[in-house]
Amino acid sequence: MNEHRQDEDLNNKPNALFENSGHHRDLTGEINTSDISPVQANSSQRVLIVTAVDAEKDAVLRGLGDTAAERFDVIAAGVGPASAAAGTAATLAYAVAAASTRALAQGSTAPSPSDVAQASATSSRPGPLAGAGSSPAYMLVISAGIGGGFPGRADVGSLVVADAMVAADLGSQTPDGFLSVDELGFGSSIVAADAELAARLRHELQQAGLAVSGGTAVTVSTATGTAETAAELLRRVPDAAAEGMEGFGVATAAQQFGVPALELRAISNAVGPRDRDAWRIKDALDALQAASSILREVITS
Known about the structure:
This protein has helices spanning 3-12, 16-19, 38-41, 54-64, 68-71, 81-105, 113-122, 181-184, 195-207, 227-236, 247-256, 281-300, and strands spanning 46-51, 72-76, 138-149, 159-161, 164-167, 171-174, 177-180, 190-192, 212-213, 216-219, 240-244, 261-270. It is of the alpha/beta class.
């Protein structure tokens, strides 16, 4: 299906954004690195914005405007936490490699591949994978897109700037109920957002007259479609405000490279019983565009 057909489908049926989400990559299935130039990637003051699909990416770019390329790189990495993490990590690694190449060209010493591998393998906590002493190629990574809002916490058409990103279904079912990966002792299902920047962005969005809330953005691999599942998610994550499928993956990749993360969700539907007729994807994309305009001002001011 070509891009023109995808745009037609997005206009004609509410769930097309998800059903046609395979168009976030080129025909080879690879992330399009032409979105990120080596010169741009060398700057530690750049911001990487990761969406799932092209419709979200386009909304973000419209909001950022003609000056977007000066400070922002925007990619569509794919649907789901695995694609989001892989696409984000690949982009960050590409940027680190570009920075290392530039450093070598200028006569500086860059970490060798063996040093990078050793630093990664021996590290007991997330951190820059470019080796000790290497500064991140980006100052911030943002997971941005549309998603579900928990009723009473994030209304359809509003925005959520998350305080944390949580993998809400990462764990194990037991006879006594769900246990998170944290409770199992196998790691963490939580990545905290950059608290200062999240609060500042929420404030500026409110000042611009946009409806926005905080709370946790839950990441799932299967979008919620029943009231029972919605209630279970709230039991697991009591302050859940939004549901998406990429935020935790993006944030985890950013954390591994030592870069702070945010998640920005524009709410297209209520989390709960699946009602395609009630989805407001266009309104959510418009809200995402408006929020991206404010984001530009917050980042560049």
